[in-house]
């Protein structure tokens, strides 16, 4: 029987981050991936026309640029090069007015000030607050929950009054938060659109902090893209791992082997069993791990009961295009933005979220659109544009090819309204619905591109079920390394790093006492 120190199930970016950190500690690591290529939702392919490199899912990476975990890996030494569009983001209103977010804060302030005098100064103040909190806030975000030491450092930095204001922001809908600070639609839409970009309704309690975080990251580090495609980020992770670990694709894991309450290895779909001396880390959604890869008899009944309430995100419809030229925006400010939000004003965003929440296909879709050649000229031949757009629909609403075709047409209709002549520039298109997205990344169950991490009640210590939100599981030496664990989705490596740290702690610094502590914590939650 093949034996290694650690087995990582899934070669998504979190699995590869975990593998790198374990290899850095001298462990012998084997990464098993069910599909034919590593990367999960971070992949690039020529799916439209020759010479056009389209990102299949993830495309822009502000969290990667800000993440102390990803920065600490030094991926630039392994071929990764970041590129930026001239401007970060444009929100195009239905009447063709446009709010612009640039890495140049003065340029952003000038844009929002055109909607209402004084909003530019207010935006500058909001960004100054971010700069004051940035490093300590990011430390707290990427530390395993609860982040006691980073939280204490953050409190020292802010003082009690400011900390209470931040705590209040955690509870606010983004619409309320932005109305308290800005008079005009421009700044409010930059915040609300980024909350919707995070798949949260503008009227959801708690959506303010996500809109604020993404907007401030955009202002700070931009929305960078890897030169050559999102897949180059994965290539850099694989290159960094090198011969210190092995990545084997086309090897699906059917079962985590457990003996005496401890993970001891895995069994693959081909029947092969592989032993893990120290740990098994699973870069999969929580519902795929508990009760499927791990037999129910090894899990607390309360955990399985809680998982019945696990909420997946809405489904996604995405279209990639090969265009003969740039998108012909009526709002010319959008031409230089890598990311464009369009289709809805603030009330439209509220209606979009409400219709999804009631299981209805929104009448006016909110679109996220990427102009990839604008951000990275290597993505398509000179003078052309590799672009994509996606929107969300209720789960199960695009179960047939005709339904998927109608949703794709609605996406193109929305763009055509803001950019007349857009359809004339389409050389080729590639349409993905929930089934297609899940086919190239099984973690995107039902087209849920954030893996169930954007439901508010599954954030922080409620992720993935009411618990400590940690990578540790009720099975000793088994760790949840996927986006279901804290700190959730986006490409920042947090769940993978936390799982690796927990595995190293269990086998090193804390020894058996660490396992006793974790078991006590799970007993407190599950009885």
TrEMBL record:
Pfam families: Amino_oxidase. Residues 15-310 form the Amine oxidase domain. One of its GO terms (molecular function) is oxidoreductase activity. Interacts with COX5B; this interaction may contribute to localize PYROXD2 to the inner face of the inner mitochondrial membrane. PANTHER family: DEHYDROGENASE-RELATED, PHYTOENE DEHYDROGENASE. Probable oxidoreductase that may play a role as regulator of mitochondrial function. This is Pyridine nucleotide-disulfide oxidoreductase domain-containing protein 2. The lineage of its organism: Bacteria, Bacillati, Actinomycetota, Actinomycetes, Pseudonocardiales.
